[in-house]
Amino acid sequence: MLEISVIIPVYNAAEFLEKAVQSAVQFEEVKEIILIEDLSTDNSLEICEQLSTEIPKVKLFQHPDKGNHGAGASRNLGIEKAAGSFIAFLDADDHYLPNRFDAEKKLFKDPKIDGVFNAIGTEYLTEKGKEEFQSKFKEISLSTVNYPAEGEEVFKGLLSLSTKTFGTSFHLNSLTIRKASLEPHQIRFNKELRVHQDSDFIIKLAYHCHLKTGNITEAVAMRGVHDNNRITKIVKYSPQYNQRQFLLWQSLNQWAISNQIPAEPRKRIYLMYKSFDLSLKKGFIKYCTILGEVLKNPEILKTKYRFTYYNR
């Protein structure tokens, strides 16, 4: 039987936390639920303490300095504390469905598989959150990929290097990985990224490990959309959006260079990094720099870079 450690970073999630924890407790495969409380300003810590007292599977940790370090650092601490052979993640405002680990029980019988990912659904918890989400994104009832994939095809799909459109990627809530598979390359979340550390982690994981699709036609977890979701607060291609994307692709570009990954994905990552780097420049220097970069790398025009009014 699988022994899974579920890691939940907790920051100002008092309203949702108990539901998240209870959704993980139900599984026999879940050995422990690790709460990493990240200096919340609401009563999340009190709820964490109550849950860890009442439910034997729940273990509570804080950072050594009891400070706020972000979701990436919190998940890293959870990985270090995990005693299970497998690791799964859950956001504190989301929850698992009863079929969460059905695919894993079958697929992890193959020792070459390091990780399995599935589809997740969307649950609107507030009307304002629903309006904000739907104003920025098309209606997404299921976040999943478009076809079964494993190994190198997953990595290529995430970078849009596959001959087929990979889809809307996958969410951490749907991922289960062998803890031992993280260690050869010390795969961890980039704690310097306050957002997009999940995307950064998933792309690196897909390169170093053998990932495989599980259930990609039905949700195995639900993402909660509410008033305080950070994803709904940022206008696409606004300066703040471009800055966050720049930091993500800068992190991946540095990783690609240091790990000497193959030329095709390395170039793709560089072009994405450079496109958002250019988007942050202003005035005459910006357009001179864009021209120079396009002359060197015409493919940059095929990236997500946009000549928008935000960048003038």
From TrEMBL:
Protein name, as recorded: Glycosyltransferase family 2 protein
Lineage, top ranks: Bacteria, Pseudomonadati, Bacteroidota, Flavobacteriia, Flavobacteriales
Keywords for this protein: Glycosyltransferase, Transferase
Pfam family, one: Glycos_transf_2
InterPro entries attached to this UniProt entry: Glyco_trans_2-like, Nucleotide-diphossugar_trans
GO function terms (MF aspect): hexosyltransferase activity
Stretches assigned to the Glycosyltransferase 2-like domain: 5-117
Top-rank lineage group of the source organism: Bacteria
